[in-house]
Amino acid sequence: MSTAATPAPAPAAPPDGTPPAPAVRRIPVTATATALTVALLLSLLCGVALGSSGLAWSQVLRLLGAGLTGGRLDADEAAAYAIVWEIRLPRTVLAAVVGAGLAATGVAVQAMVRNALADPFVLGISSGAAVGANAVLLLGAFASLGVWAISVSAFGGALLAMVLVYAAARTAFGLTPLRLVLTGTAMSYGFSAVTALMVFAAARGEAARSAMMWLLGSLGGATWGSVPIVAVTVLAGLAHLACSAGRLDALAMGDETAASLGVDGDRLRRELFVVTAAVTGTVVAASGAIGFVGLMVPHLTRMLVGAGHRRVLLVAPLAGALLLVWVDIVSRTLLAPTELPVGVVTAVLGVPCFLLLMRRRGYTFGGR
User: Fold this and answer.
1) If you average pLDDT over residues 224-232, what whole number do you get?
2) Which residues, other chains included, contact 314 with Cβ-Cβ below 8 Å and sequence gap of 6+?
3) Rounded distance, CA 133 to CA 142, Å?
4) What digits encode the pLDDT tens for the residues 241-288?
5) Residue 174: beta bridge partners?
6) Which of 9, 39, 286, 361 is the most exposed place for a label (fewest CB within 10 A)?
7) Using CA atoms, how far apart are residues 70 and 181, in angstroms rounded to an integer?
8) Residue of 90, 367, 40, 349 lying closest to 226 (CA atoms)
9) Taking the CB of residue 19, how many other CB atoms lie within 10 A of it?
10) pTM for the full predicted model
11) Cα angle at 217 between 291 and 300, to 5 degrees?
């Protein structure tokens, strides 16, 4: 005798009589990560092929192959080879690394301060880096460092901001989420005021324009010298966060719950503060302040695969890398040869996407 399958019970309606929120379907994390990896590899190729200088796809593939294998090229292809290998490829790789770093640190900061509106810049690190970078662009500081002046000065500013925020937020009871958010926000306003004062007092209009371009995010200064430093820092941060995924799950549920599970919330928060500050400072030093990636991507990832940090930290860096590669492509091709600031494009995409996400029933920020 066959028995009919028992249908799943419908979600119970809330007591107030409003219809229940629809169940949110999660996509398998392995399939999602695989699809994003394939899409990212294809996008990296698109990032190298697309640009204001028209290069045929066949020529780009041949130049990439020659660079990888040491093949011979005709003399008239030297300029195209330089465009592919010295300009577009490091820029595209840096975009992927920066996107991955911002997305991963966004996940960590939201767990650290238990605030759905937190992102890598909420701790004031980016504002400190902006002061350091603009000291070079507007005041000529650290000119003796040459091409490394902006990166070194920006990272120094980020490090100074990290120390100040940590010293001001720490109490005898440890680092609390509220004090971190409030201290970081206050410091961010202070550093932003210093930056605005330097831009206002700049004697050269072109210097002020360069400063504003950096403040809004730009990958135009990418070189093979800067990519490895950022990549190693981001990979080290990702490795630490991946190893801490279980503790992040506990921390996101509150310090009391974390303590009952054997997780020291204060110690983990200190670790996360150092890791996110180091990754954010390094990324901002290389690319400027690029907003919305660290805020938007973690929420989109949770909507797709759930809120478990093992799943989120596998998917979010891939999604962030994919997003920023295409944002960079748009920023340098939409109004070519004029280049748009990367942060402007992320804001144009991020604001409506985030508003739609907030309106979506069945999704709660940070909820499972």
Assistant:
1) 90
2) 29, 33, 242
3) 10
4) 999 999 999 988 888 888 898 998 888 988 998 898 889 888 988 888
5) 171
6) 9
7) 51
8) 90
9) 9
10) 0.85
11) 30
d(CA 28, CA 51): 35
From the list 2, 26, 25, 21, the residue with the least C-alpha distance to 10 is: 21
Alpha carbon distance 127, 133 (integer Å): 10
> Closest Cα to residue 321, out of 116, 47, 115?
47
- Give the Cβ contact number of residue 271 at 10 Å: 17
Q: How far is CA 72 from CA 62, 64, 68, 241, 325, in A?
A: 10, 12, 11, 43, 29
Question: Does residue 307 contact residue 367 with C-beta atoms inside 8 Å?
Answer: yes
CA 207 → CA 17, 118, 162, distances in Å? 61, 31, 27
Residue 174 in 3-state DSSP?
Answer: strand
In whole angstroms, what is the distance from residue 94 CA to residue 6 CA?
Answer: 52
- Classified as helix, coil or strand, 218 is coil
Q: What's the rounded Cα separation, in Å, for the pair 228 and 97?
A: 10
Alpha-carbon distance of 317 to 324, in angstroms, equals 11
Length of the chain: 368
Q: Which residue do the tokens 């403040």 mark?
A: 215
Q: Measured between alpha carbons, how far is residue 200 from residues 196, 208, 342 in Å?
A: 6, 8, 23
Cβ atoms within 10 Å of 135's Cβ, excluding its own: 22
Q: And the tokens for 15?
A: 């007591």
From residue 55, alpha-carbon distances to 39, 47, 63, 79 in Å are 21, 12, 10, 11
For residues 346 and 99, give the distance between their C-alpha atoms in angstroms, rounded to a whole number. 11
Average pLDDT, the chain: 83
User: Per the omega criterion (within 30 degrees of 0), is the bond before 28 cis?
Assistant: no
CA–CA separation, 62 and 215 (whole Å) = 36
Confidence of residue 1 (pLDDT cuts 50, 70, 90): very low
CA 325 to chain centre: 12
Q: Which helix (H) or strand (E) covers residue 279, if one does?
A: helix 265-287
- Smallest Cα–Cα separation from 131: which of 156, 105, 106, 101? 156
The Cβ of residue 205 has, within 10 Å, a number of other Cβ atoms equal to 8
